[in-house]
Amino acid sequence: MPEGPSIVILKEEVQQFTGQKIISVSGNTHIDISRLQDKTILAFKTWGKHFLICFDSFTVKIHMLMFGTYRINERKVSKPRLSLVFENGELNFYTCSVKILEGDINSHYDWSVDVMNENWNPKKAQESIEKMPQKMICDIILDQDIFSGVGNIIKNEVLYRCYVHPESIVEKIPPHIKSQLIAECSTYSFEFLYWKKKFELKKHWEAYTKNICLRCNLPFQKKQTGERKRRSFFCTNCQQLYI
Q: Do the record's keywords include DNA damage (predicted)?
């Protein structure tokens, strides 16, 4: 599943179509695609893992799910879920979820929980975390209502950077460590974006998919953790378990 930084890259790559009229629309989506015909795109936005195509009275929300892809000015052999054709190019989405959000896009999203948005509010994240004291930190970091855009790669890397075991209980983690975790969720997301643009993201992974702890030279544990049962890679020697 693409994480927030990858969707930001998509937004940057399609700016050529801002202000352009859709001259042809097709696809095997269940939405009423006729609504998009001859419509002008006002803006492209992102909220976490959601890619948003904004029109005058509604927005098309695209979620890439686990295996979604897109093509700009080219097509795959398979039929697109949604295809938008302009005078100067086309935009095609595959294996994704497509929905229409009615009215003002600002009524649908809280931009302050998006770790890459200019309105990101770490204090609000802290307040939300404190309301779930018994949760494991691995589940909290993946909660899109708190850390929109953060996925499993970022979760693993942030926990490793902060020396925190993924199964740590929120209320047991010292306040200064929680503050560090919150800050790193945003910081690492922007580093992710920078490295991905340079096509060197995997080179910088220190925990995700790794077998040996770089700090301790000991084997990593690999386990499905939390209620979400997502893969975690961690060192039991240097990542403190707060329980």
A: yes
